[in-house]
Amino acid sequence: MDDPAVDGIRGALAAEVARRFGAARAAALAAEIDALAAELAVVAAADVPDEAEPAFFLLDGDAR
Amino acid sequence: MRAPVELSVTEAAAAIRTGHLSPVALVEACLARIAAREPAVQAWVTVDRPGALDAARRLEAEARAGRFRGPLHGIPVGLKDIIDAAGLKTTAGARGFADSTPTADAPCVARLRAAGAVILGKLHTTEFAFGDPAVTRNPWHPGRTPGGSSAGSAAAVAARMVPAALGTQTVGSVLRPAAFCGVVGFKPTYGRISRRGVVPLAWSLDHVGVLVRCVADAAVVFGVMAGYDPDDPGSARAAVPDVTAAVAGPPGRPPRLGLVGAPFRDRATPEAREHLDGLAGGLAARGAEVEPVELPAVMAAMGAAVITVSRAELGAVHAARHAQHADAFRPRIRAGIELGSAIPADLYLHAQRIRRHARRVLAPLFARYDALVLPAAPGPAPDPGTTGDPAFNGPWTGLGVPCIALPTGLARDGLPLGTQLVGGPFEEARLLAAARWVETMVGFAAAPRE
């Protein structure tokens, strides 16, 4: 059964790929878009506390 | 003494220091081994025969005069071909369209040379260290992948062409090939080894690591390369412990090990699960405290977070090159760049927040256990159409914590099975001591047949 969250992300991702690289390229990448959309949906659903800032390079304690 | 190519880094360095082995003889033995095995293994992009022999002659003269540059005096080392060495072409596995010939060593290479290492050459990588398989074959079986992206590095060490090689890991590119090729692969804490002079894949995930044949070698090579680099924005200022002392002499106390189950266990093959269970039982029988551990819920999202971050950063790293040469990229990396550039900013940021949160909530586990234990890969090396599944490595790379893969047995098809030990941030000494204990208890001694 389709997951609405994945469907929404898949649609947005496919539209952005088409905007950047053309509709033909987006169509050629349909399977890869499906796979990445599933991963992005897991990320979107993951709960993190409000105070969790993004990790970019150094994390807590790395400068000790 | 065994044949020079069979010696580990620490064994060869000791033999050189005591005058029982000459650096020139060791380099010549490696070159002869490469000549014999390279047609089947295809590990090397560039073998710097004249440069290596010149360096070995200088180091031999110094050794005869009683002068030793450091713990790697006279030891040949291979470099994954995304790591710069002065005067040697860096291809990044990109078949010509991104070649450069650096005039300076990457700092990690400069540190190796300062410690006496001989740079033997450059080793095949997947294109820009992504997922399109390299030409390298698994020395254990030509019909199986050596893994990737550090394919040549793992294969060359396994085939006894060189005792140590550098690799890099952004998701699972050191530990997975190490497991598939039956060698030791070690990735330290994020920021421990400078990535300057290394072609990036994803800035916030890229690590330099080592491929060797025993834990003591991982410690000595890591110890030489580790340290703060003010010109690498991802470099950590944390003091580097004396990791060689942690693995010197007889193995220390039996470690406390946390046996990781979900979400990894179900992805392993039945044979890999059976192997890990048997290993855990054996280690417990020898005195290790082995306890099952339940990971915090956020770890179920870490694999997806790492995929999200790595793709988004890949797209940014290669945006300009893609605009010029989109057709030159191989299929998997081209798709990765294109999809990565389309990932929404809010999901990229959320993935980075998952990483930070996960590192915080795992701190008590890393305090309790010397190492967490799980398979290094879902099973033995699969067919060469892929580089294998990095799902067992990516979440830990995303945490930026040190990890090591050890060969711990053979599958029914005769290929190696690897076990991964994971330590807390900046706890390399503790992790390597635990790995050394496990390595000693397991006593893995198999090697690929000729």
In what order do the strands lie side by side in the largest sheet of chain B? 1-3-2-4-6-5-10-11-9-7-8
> Would you tell me the overall average pLDDT of chain B?
97
| Strand residues, percent of chain B | 5-15%
Total helical segments of chain A: 3
Radius of gyration of chain B, taken over Cα atoms and rounded to an integer in Å: 20 Å
Please tell me what the overall shape of chain B is. globular
Q: Could you state the order of secondary-structure elements of chain B as H and E?
A: HHEHEHEHEHEEHHEHEHHHHEHEEH
Extract low-pLDDT stretches of chain B: none
The number of E-state strands of chain B comes to: 11
Largest sheet of chain A: none
Largest interface: chains, residues each: A-B, 35 and 40 residues
Q: Mean pLDDT of chain A, as a whole number?
A: 88
Features:
heterodimer; A: 64 residues; mainly alpha; elongated; B: alpha/beta; Amidase signature (AS) enzymes; 15 helices; 14% strand
What does it look like?
The complex is a heterodimer of chains A (64) and B (450). Chain A is mostly helical and 64 residues long. Chain A has one domain. Chain A has three helices and no strands. In chain A, helix 1 (4-21) packs across helix 3. The model of chain A has no long low-confidence stretch (mean pLDDT 88). Chain B is of the alpha/beta class and 450 residues long. Chain B has 15 helices and eleven strands. In chain B, strand 2 (76-80), helix 4 and strand 3 (118-123) form a beta-alpha-beta unit. The longest helix of chain B has 24 residues, at 345-368. Chain B starts with 8 loop residues before the first helix and ends in an 8-residue tail after the last helix. The mean pLDDT of chain B is 97. The A-B interface holds A 9, 12-13, 16-17, 20-21, 25, 29, 32-33, 36, 39-40, 42-49, 52-64 and B 190-191, 203-204, 233-234, 236-238, 298, 300-301, 303-305, 307-308, 311, 335, 338-339, 341-344, 347, 349-357, 359-360, 400, 425-426.
